[in-house]
Design brief:
484 residues, Aminopeptidase, 9-stranded mixed sheet, 4-stranded antiparallel sheet, 22% strand
Length: 484
C-alpha cells in the first residue's frame, strides 16, 4: 500500500503569473494521478516478449481511458498488422493562430530482468522513501501521466488549453520502434505539429531538471558462432575440438582494448567532433570530475574497486553521451544448473550498439561485421545478423521552443535546467521531426539518475514527478504565449 502523495506545491516551485489556479488544481489531483500511474504499472506491457501481447493491448486501452479522463477528444488505438497499439488523442480548439503541440510517451516496458533481485514485485507498485518502485514507473508510464496531469488540470480549471494539443503514446519504443516508418506513412498527416514534446528522458539530478539536446543512436546485432553440427562429450573431445563458447568469449574480448575502449577498426571513424561550446557545456556539468565520478559509482551501484571503462582521454560525460558503445547484453548458453559436460556446438550473442552523433549506422555496422568475421578464432563459422538501427539525434540548444521549456522548468523546479545529452536512444525523435518539416523537439525528464530504468528496482522520485507535471502545464502556457 502506498502513502498519500503530496497535494501542495513543492517548496522550490515558483508559479508563473496567472497560472496559480492551474498549478493548484494539478497538485490537488496528484493523488489521483499517482493512483492512475500505479494502475498502469500493474500491467506487464513487455513489448519484446510475444506472450505479453495481450497485456500490451490492455495497457494501450487503459492509456486511452486516461487520455479520455484528461478531456482529450478523438482518442483511439491506431495499429498496423503486426504492431503493438499506438494510442492517440487531441484537443484542437485553441484556434488556427495557436501552435499545435504533439506530446509523446510510450506505454511498453522492458522485461524485468532477474525477478528475485527486485526488492518488491516488479508489477506491484510500491512506495518507499518518496520513490515509487515498479517496472515502467519511470520509463515511461510516468511520461504518459505527466501529459494526463497537465491537460486535465488546464481543462478542469479553464475549460480550454493555451495551444492545440495532439498526443501519441507508442507501444513499441522498447523494441526500437520497428514499425515507425509504416506508422508515419499511414498516420503521420494527422499528427502534424509545430512543436514535439517527449517526456521520456532523465533529469540531471533529483531536484535539478535536464533539457536534452543529444541522443545516441542504437543498433541490435546478433552474432552466432558455430563449431560443430552437434555438441560432443567434453571429456572425449576436449583439448582438441574447439567449442563455440570459448570461441565466442575470445571474439567478444577482441571488441575492446584492455581499458574497455572500442577496438573495432573503422567503427568510430565518422563520430562527430565536439564543438567548443558543446565541450564547455559538458565541462560546466562535470566540474572537477571527482564528485561526478563518485555520483556515477553510487548511481550505477558499482562493486567496490570497479574501474570505469572506455577511452580515458575523454571525460565521463563525453564517453556517456557523445561516443559509441558495443555491449553484449544476452547469450544463448545453458544455465549453470542445467549444463552438461559437453562442448557447445553453437552460441548466439546479442550485441547492443549505441551510436554517437555523426555516425552512419550502416557504415559502422559494416565495420563491426568485418571485425567479427575476421577475428573469429580457429576457423569457426560466424553469422552476423543486424536488426533495427537508428541514427543519433542532435539539436542546437536555443530558439523559441527551447526558451519556453527553460522558463517552464525553471518555474517548476526552482532552477534552470541543465543542457545535457543522453546515452540512451529514442528512435521516434528524428523521423517525427523530419516528417513535420524539422519541428523542434523538446526532450524533458521524468526520471533521475537513480531511477534505474531498464534495471531491477526501477523507481520514480515522486516529488520530481510532480515538478515534471507542473513543467508541462507551464510549458503549454509558455508555448502559447510565445506564439502570441
Amino acid at each position: 500500500m502506498t502513502a498519500e502523495p503530496m497535494s501542495v506545491l513543492p517548496a522550490a516551485t515558483r508559479v508563473p503569473s496567472g497560472l496559480d489556479d492551474v498549478a493548484e488544481r494539478l497538485m490537488a489531483q496528484m493523488p489521483q494521478t499517482v493512483a492512475w500511474l500505479e494502475d498502469l504499472v500493474r500491467i506487464p506491457s513487455i513489448s519484446v516478449q510475444p506472450e505479453y501481447a495481450d497485456d500490451c493491448r490492455r495497457s494501450a486501452e487503459r492509456t486511452a481511458q486516461r487520455l479520455r479522463d484528461a478531456g482529450l477528444e478523438d482518442v483511439e488505438l491506431l495499429e498496423l498488422d503486426g504492431t503493438h497499439p499506438y494510442v492517440t488523442g487531441s484537443w484542437l480548439r485553441a484556434g488556427d493562430d495557436a501552435p499545435t503541440v504533439l506530446l509523446y510517451a510510450h506505454h511498453d516496458v522492458q522485461p524485468v530482468g532477474t525477478p528475485e533481485r527486485w526488492s518488491s514485485s516488479p508489477f506491484e507498485p510500491t512506495e518507499r522513501e518518496g520513490r515509487l518502485y515498479g517496472r515502467g514507473a519511470a520509463d515511461d508510464k510516468a511520461g504518459i501521466m505527466a501529459h494526463v496531469a497537465a491537460i486535465r488540470a488546464w481543462l478542469d480549471t479553464r475549460g480550454t488549453l493555451p495551444v492545440n494539443v495532439k498526443v501519441v503514446i507508442e507501444g513499441e519504443e522498447e523494441i526500437g520502434s520497428p514499425n515507425l516508418e509504416r506508422f508515419l506513412d499511414t498516420y503521420g498527416a494527422r499528427l502534424r505539429a509545430d512543436v514535439i514534446v517527449l517526456t521520456d528522458l532523465t533529469n540531471w539530478k533529483v531536484g535539478w531538471p535536464g533539457l536534452t539536446y543529444a541522443l545516441r543512436g542504437m543498433a541490435d546485432v546478433v552474432v552466432t558462432v558455430r563449431a560443430m553440427q552437434q555438441p560432443v562429450h567434453s571429456g572425449m573431445w576436449g583439448g582438441v575440438v574447439p567449442d563455440a563458447l570459448t570461441a565466442t568469449v575470445r571474439l567478444l574480448a577482441s571488441l575492446h582494448d584492455d581499458a574497455g575502449a572500442i577496438a573495432v577498426d573503422g567503427f568510430e571513424d565518422d563520430v562527430r567532433a565536439l564543438a567548443d561550446d558543446e565541450r564547455a557545456r559538458l565541462e560546466a556539468l562535470e566540474g572537477d570530475g571527482e564528485a561526478l565520478a563518485d555520483d556515477f559509482r553510487d548511481e550505477a551501484r558499482l562493486v567496490a574497486g570497479a574501474e570505469f571503462v572506455g577511452d580515458d582521454r575523454r571525460t565521463i560525460l563525453e564517453r556517456l553521451w557523445m561516443r559509441p558503445t558495443i555491449t553484449p547484453t544476452g547469450m544463448d548458453v545453458p544455465a549453470v544448473a542445467a549444463a552438461s559436460n559437453t562442448l557447445l556446438a553453437q552460441v548466439r550473442t546479442k550485441l547492443s550498439c549505441r551510436l554517437a552523433p555523426g555516425q552512419d549506422p550502416d557504415r559502422a555496422l559494416d565495420a563491426l561485421r568485418r571485425h567479427l568475421e575476421t577475428n573469429v578464432p580457429w576457423g569457426l563459422e560466424v553469422q552476423v545478423d543486424v536488426g533495427e538501427r537508428n541514427r543519433a539525434w542532435v539539436t542546437e540548444p536555443g530558439g523559441g521552443a527551447w526558451d519556453a521549456a527553460v522558463a517552464a522548468m525553471t518555474a517548476a523546479y526552482g532552477r534552470e535546467p541543465a543542457a545535457m545529452g543522453c546515452g540512451g536512444s529514442i528512435p521516434f525523435v528524428e523521423p517525427f521531426s523530419d516528417a513535420f518539416g524539422g519541428a523542434p523537439c523538446l526532450l524533458v525528464g521524468v526520471e533521475d539518475p537513480g531511477s534505474n530504468a531498464h534495471g531491477e528496482d526501477e523507481s520514480l522520485h515522486l516529488e520530481d514527478f510532480a515538478k515534471a507535471c507542473l513543467t508541462e502545464a507551464f510549458l503549454l502556457a509558455e508555448l502559447g504565449r510565445d506564439a502570441g
